[in-house]
Specification:
Two copies of one chain form a homodimer.
Chain A: H1 2-12, E1 17-19, E2 41-43, H2 48-60, E3 65-68, E4 85-88, E5 95-99, E6 104-108, H3 113-122, E7 125-126, H4 139-144, H5 152-155, H6 158-161, E8 162-168, E9 174-177, H7 190-194, E10 203-210, E11 212-213, E12 219-225, H8 228-241, E13 244-250, H9 252-262, E14 273-279, H10 284-292, E15 298-301, H11 305-316, H12 320-323, E16 328-333, H13 339-353, E17 358-364, E18 369-375, H14 381-397, H15 422-435
Parallel strand pairs in A: 2-4, 3-4
Antiparallel strand pairs in A: 1-2, 5-6, 6-10, 7-11, 8-9, 8-10, 12-14, 12-15, 13-14, 13-17, 16-18, 17-18
Chain lengths: 452, 452
């Protein structure tokens, strides 16, 4: 290892290779707060060439590499094990180019999402991806985890918006395909394979994103609904009436804590289901009809940007991690029609088996994406595992996805087989082995070791 | 081989396994009309299980398999070599389910595109993909080649619209992921890898497609423009004013032959560039401003469905293959800003080096996708190759794609390296070897043999 570190130091310089005690504490864990070990070193290459050289050195020495972005992931995918080195692209940042005519943008992996969003806005466009950690998450991590968020309903996932990608493979080979063509049928879609591969196939260095025209006006409303079935009906009605840019559902327990944290309470009485709608057309007519049809019991229109921000603040519930320490975070996909019964059934089952557990449901309902937060005053490991099993068994029963957005990392690896067949997992392992035969790229994340 | 055929016959029955003289002539060649050899057998499994069993037999016997759909491809990707067997899913057809609430549809591979489109329309939706061969191309081929067409500007490519996929691998393993979740971060995006893999990684059996709401009204206009630079400016203006569902460019030679074949001539004088716009909002205001700005010299609004059909008939130029026998078909992506100069420069170069060659340019300009048809009264193989080289060298010079829509097949295999780096091609070969180690799946298509 000493020899490898000497080579890395020579290659990256002292500011590009922090070893042992110099590795900052921030490299220990992502937002899942489950990282136990500080990486043996933190590599900070400042350009693509340096990434390539550093990986070639690691490859030769069989040094395992954990790519780290803004450390905002929730699945443990960026946490290192003993003897592994972390690789950060924080020094390789910035928007390289905005092509206004083609409506594309080339961004470096170390760029913070908010910076890319601002550059897109300055050029008169919308950057397609947005979520709560925009101020610290990095483009490389966003690509590696196929970031989602509330705008997927309007612009699609990260994968759908990456038109070109540059990745460095385990052995240092640079795969660069940054042309950004909308249509390109020259062989396998390598970029889609790397988007969402959680750093297990290579290190993302640059990406070309599709940009979207700015919507003329945005209309936001918060609605109180009699039940979740009404919400699915409202969604269908909204889809055919307006262009939705968000359709977020908040079940009662989540609404209450969201209000508490946001220090605002739009509806005094807690709705059975609260829906935040954002659209590019006025919502009055839609909601009037919905009211007459009994789908909506009450609705508040945002009359100002401040109103809209207040609605979103309830939905975002910033500070939840601190308010409910040790909470468990779930992020599943459930077929829309099955979602109301799924929430009711799961709430009852949790209360039955683990009384005293708080179940907070919310989610990007328009995408079939449900989030669940579980909290107990005392959450020991066996209980947490049993809760995982209870939730994921029900997701499997619905043919849903155990990870809609957050990825598998280490925390959901045990449950991957609930959404993917053995044949699919074997196929993923075959691809992993083909591209990273010595398993140096983020080993043990997403997949169990292929060598074991 | 006899033994393999006996097993295949026993497995698939006489109607599921046509051998030697029973193989229909239609299995010889796709629309590129370059197929020389009739397959040794045509396998016609009637369900997924039969596909799996048939491939397992072929795999055991190292029998090479060429998947065939509607034989409408233009790259030779479905043509067999001596001793290879073809596999058709024509007997496994039909729409399995339309989920109106989730706006998805599960379709079998042997389904003709037009059938899927009609089923979507009956359920109140638009099927996202459309192109000229809709009456005979099949869903399996559409998925395997990542079909494009004029609607990509509105709904995206096939890959962007496939939410779930079932594929049978070379050894008969069934990979089924038909949940159709919009958001699913449970590991590698295997489906995107198979979409566009041209039958080299497995056989597509079923796919779940995203459906789209029917647009309220469609507005169509045909415009005469002073030059191609005006067209790129008009495109930018149109994008911010309306929701485009087509933006098609016809250069003069193509316009003239399109009129001839369609037996209509909307503009008596041939425009320098003719643009067909289709949008979901009225076009009058946009075109009025464009007229004032000198971007448009004349414009015709479709006042009826018949008008719109006539405009499209000029664009589609049905019968072109017969009118210009032996024509060469190009399908490239070029950065929008570079497109006007690219067309002018290429036209001049062709006229200079190969006088007497007719160059017909048209394309899905909104996607940066340019089609070119070349025709000479006498087109011998060396001339055709020299023309290929001339065109693709210029595409390479622009950093474009040598295949935007049609795929690589055999006809563009030599030019793949003009759009993809050696590292990318090696990575594709590594994936191919991992999933099809004996190279029985459509060998020699897209990639040269990995074993050679």
């Amino acid at each position: 290892m000493r020899e490898a570190f000497d080579e890395l130091l020579a290659c990256l310089g002292p500011s590009g290779c922090l070893i042992g005690p110099d590795v900052p504490e921030a490299s220990r864990t992502d937002e899942s707060r489950t990282g136990r070990t500080l990486p043996a070193a933190l590599l900070r290459p400042a350009d693509v060439d340096a990434v390539s050289q550093a990986l070639a050195i690691c490859h030769r020495h069989r040094l395992r590499v954990v790519p780290q972005g803004g450390m905002t992931g929730l699945a443990g995918g960026a946490n290192a094990l003993a003897g592994e080195v972390a690789l950060s692209l924080a020094r390789f940042h910035g928007v390289e180019a905005v092509d206004a005519q083609a409506a594309t943008m080339c961004v470096r992996a170390g760029t913070v999402l908010a910076v890319a969003q601002e550059a897109a806005a300055e050029a008169g466009f919308v950057f397609p991806i947005d979520y709560g950690s925009r101020g610290s998450c990095q483009i490389g991590g966003l690509v590696a985890t196929n970031g989602g968020g509330p705008r997927v309903i309007r612009y699609g996932t990260t994968r759908a918006n990456v038109l070109g990608l540059e990745v460095v493979l385990a052995d240092g080979t640079v795969l660069s395909h940054l042309g950004g063509q909308l249509k390109d049928n020259t062989g396998y879609d390598l970029k889609s394979l790397f988007v969402g591969s959680e750093g297990t196939l290579g290190v993302v260095t640059r990406a070309v994103f599709r940009l979207w025209p700015k919507p003329g006006e945005t209309y936001t409303a918060l609605c109180a609904l009699p039940d979740a079935r009404a919400a699915t009906a409202l969604l269908a009605a909204a889809r055919s009436a307006v262009t939705l840019s968000a359709f977020e559902a908040l079940w009662p327990a989540y609404y209450d804590i969201g209000c508490l944290l946001a220090k605002t309470r739009p509806f005094a009485a807690t709705p059975a289901v609260c829906i935040l709608i954002e659209a590019e057309q006025p919502l009055e007519a839609l909601l009037e009809t919905a009211f007459e049809d009994g789908l909506v019991e009450d609705a508040l229109m945002a009359r100002s940007y401040a109103d809209a921000r207040a609605f979103w603040a309830v939905r975002e519930a910033a500070g939840l991690d601190d308010a409910l320490p040790g909470l468990m975070n779930f992020d599943v996909s459930i077929e829309l029609q099955a979602m109301p019964a799924f929430v009711d059934g799961l709430t009852a089952a949790i209360e039955n088996v683990f009384p005293g557990t708080r179940s907070l449901f919310f989610g990007h309902m328009g995408d079939g994406n449900l989030h669940l937060i579980l909290h107990r005053d005392e959450m020991d490991a066996p209980t947490a595992h049993a809760l995982d099993e209870l939730v994921y068994e029900r997701v499997r029963g619905e043919g849903g996805s155990v990870s809609a957005e957050h990825g598998i990392g280490t925390l959901k690896r045990e449950w991957l087989g609930f959404s993917r067949s053995p044949a699919e997992i074997r196929t993923m392992q075959a691809i992993k082995s083909a591209l990273d035969p010595h398993e140096i790229m983020n080993p043990g994340k997403l997949l169990t070791s292929c060598q074991s």
